[in-house]
Every structure is written in structure tokens, then in C-alpha cells.
């Protein structure tokens, strides 16, 4: 468990759980994040040049939020600043300096490319979701 920062303490008071929070908790439990990360790791930029990339799992979670809630990169960035449920789902604590860098979010789609990237997504969906349709490519 991560240590709470002062910025996150205000959101810990008891409140009614929203539909968004319930949905994100269910998706957090259902989606096999480690397996997806392992599939994408060979195609993900290593950070040898330029800025270091955001972690694979964090980018996957942001990408899935964009797909589930039909958001563009700027909308996703704004939503992460506005929604505590989305911040918690992605694992961002605004009190930590390292997580304040919500740079433009095109890195996952731009970084994971090439002729095999699409087949990696489809193979994983076929193998693990059983046609449940939770991954919208």
C-alpha cells in the first residue's frame, strides 16, 4: 500500500460510491493488467532517448479510460485532473512530484506500433476476454 499524501486525504471521507467508481473497480479486478503489460513491453519505447516513458500499466489504464469513456488525449488529461475515481484507477497521486507530469497521452498508441502491434492486441483479446468486448480497439 502506498503512503497517502495530503492531496489524497480529502477524498478518503465516506461517500456514496458512484457508478464510475463501481465500474472502474470492476474493470480493475477483471482486466489482467500484468499479462497486457507483458505483451506490450517488447513494443513499448525503452526511454533510451528523450523523455522517459510513463509506465506501461499506467499508460494502459489511461488508454482504456479513453476507450471506455470516449475521450481524446486532452479530454483524458482534463478528466484525470477532475475525477478522483479516475486518478485512483490510474494510480496517480497528485501529491507526488513524479506523478504530476500528465504530459500529452499519445505515447501508448504512438509508441506501440509496427506491423505486429495490432495482432498482439487482437490475439490477447481473443485469448483472454472470451468475446466479452471490454477492449475496444
Please describe what this structure looks like.
There is one protein chain. The protein is mainly α and 137 residues long. The chain has one domain (16-44, 52-128). Helix content is 52%, strand content 0%. It contains 8 helices and no strands. It has helices at residues 6-9, 19-30, 33-40, 56-68, 73-82, 84-90, 107-111, 117-128. α3 (33-40) crosses α4 (56-68). The chain is globular, with a radius of gyration of 16 Å. The N and C termini lie far apart (32 Å). Residues 106-113 have low confidence and may be disordered.
Describe what is shown at a glance.
The chain is mainly alpha-helical and 137 residues long. It contains eight helices and no strands.
Distance between the termini: 32 Å
Largest sheet: none
Arithmetic mean pLDDT? 73
Helix count, per DSSP?
A: 8
Low-confidence stretches: 106-113
Radius of gyration: 16 Å
User: What's the quaternary structure here?
Assistant: single chain
Count of strand segments: 0
Morphology call: globular
Q: What is the ordering of alpha helices and beta strands? A: HHHHHHHH
Helical content stands at 40-55%
Overall structural class, as computed from helix and strand content, comes to: mainly alpha
> Hey, roughly how much beta strand do the residues contain?
under 5%
| Domain module count | 1
Amino acid at each position: 500500500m502506498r503512503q497517502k499524501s495530503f492531496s489524497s486525504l480529502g477524498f478518503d471521507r465516506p461517500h456514496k460510491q458512484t457508478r464510475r467508481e463501481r465500474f472502474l473497480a470492476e474493470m480493475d479486478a477483471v482486466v489482467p493488467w500484468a499479462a497486457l503489460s507483458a505483451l506490450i513491453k517488447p513494443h513499448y519505447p525503452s526511454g533510451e532517448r528523450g523523455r522517459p516513458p510513463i509506465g506501461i500499466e499506467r499508460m494502459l489504464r489511461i488508454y482504456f479510460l479513453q476507450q471506455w469513456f470516449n475521450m481524446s488525449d486532452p479530454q483524458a488529461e482534463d478528466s484525470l485532473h477532475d475525477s478522483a475515481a479516475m486518478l485512483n484507477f490510474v494510480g496517480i497521486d497528485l501529491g507526488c512530484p513524479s506523478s504530476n507530469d500528465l504530459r500529452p497521452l499519445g505515447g501508448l498508441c504512438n509508441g506501440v506500433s509496427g506491423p505486429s502491434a495490432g495482432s498482439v492486441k487482437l490475439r490477447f483479446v481473443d485469448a483472454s476476454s472470451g468475446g466479452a468486448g471490454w477492449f475496444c480497439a
